[in-house]
Amino acid sequence: MTQLVTTSELQLIEEYTMQTMAVPQEVLIERAAMAVQEVIGAGNFDLSNVLVLAGLGNNGADGVALARLLHLQGIDVSLQFVGNLNRAKDSVQHQLKIAEHCGLTRSEKSDFQKATLIIDAIFGTGLNNTIPDGLQKMMRAANHADNSVVAIDVPTGISANTGEVLGSALKAKSTVTFGYEKVGLTKGGGKKFSGEVIVKDIGLLTPENFIFSQAK
Ligand SMILES: NC(=O)C1=CN([C@@H]2O[C@H](COP(=O)(O)OP(=O)(O)OC[C@H]3O[C@@H](n4cnc5c(N)ncnc54)[C@H](O)[C@@H]3O)[C@@H](O)[C@H]2O)[C@@H](O)CC1
Ligand SMILES: [K+]
């Protein structure tokens, strides 16, 4: 039996990890990025031209950290933000600062066709509304291109709680999800869009006797 989490259960686990257990958020972000680096480095993906599409929340922060790790590994990686960077969370700004110190500059616009692998770090468990129209258009174009997509935590456009497609979703070949599999990856659009789901430990700490509502 596999343990599943809802977004509210995950929120409790994240709070417990960072507030009660005092694990810094940066540690979780670094481990999330390293987990994805390990999966994409295992030999099943063409890493000759990697495009990281990063959003403005913590899912984007994971993507920026991953872009930096790949850059330091000598991989040709482009980092493109989706949305106005001025509105990005501090975690994203912080990760971008580290990446820039390591010599990785962000791209303004990237060529989907050129990318051999797209990393989807646009939205994760925080998505709670319909994807804006402009972004839906870009996602449909990416779905039509012939690249492999690896989603970080949850494919963009999928509700991590219900599996519903919130407007449009980015079709992943694999989804690297953190801690526990999200309920939304197991049903509806989530099941269809997430491809192979790989659960990775990133150091989230779960309170003893925590009650999970669902399993599969
Ligand atoms: N909570 C944490 O500290 C950690 C989170 N992690 C990553 O962070 C993700 C969750 O991060 P966030 O909670 O920051 O959320 P996301 O990065 O998924 O989304 C960013 C923000 O977008 C906004 N938003 C939601 N729906 C929208 C819509 N339709 N249009 C425009 N904006 C919208 C919300 O304010 C949301 O906070 C996880 O999936 C995981 O990848 C990991 O780095 C581990 C640590
Ligand atoms: K994502």
From TrEMBL:
Residues 10-210 form the YjeF N-terminal domain. PROSITE patterns: YJEF_N. Keywords: Isomerase, Metal-binding, NAD, NADP, Nucleotide-binding, Potassium. Pfam families: YjeF_N. InterPro entries: YjeF_N_dom, YjeF_N_dom_sf. Its cofactor is K(+). This is NAD(P)H-hydrate epimerase. The lineage of its organism: Bacteria, Bacillati, Bacillota, Bacilli, Lactobacillales. (6S)-NADPHX binds at N58, N59, G60, A61, D62, G124, T125, G126, L127, N128, N129, T130, D153. It comes from Eupransor demetentiae. Catalyzes the epimerization of the S- and R-forms of NAD(P)HX, a damaged form of NAD(P)H that is a result of enzymatic or heat-dependent hydration. This is a prerequisite for the S-specific NAD(P)H-hydrate dehydratase to allow the repair of both epimers of NAD(P)HX. Its EC number is 5.1.99.6. Belongs to the NnrE/AIBP family. Binds 1 potassium ion per subunit. GO terms for molecular function: NAD(P)HX epimerase activity. The keyword NADP applies. Signal peptide: none annotated. The keyword Isomerase applies. It catalyses: (6R)-NADPHX = (6S)-NADPHX; (6R)-NADHX = (6S)-NADHX. K(+) binds at N59, D120, T156. The gene is nnrE.
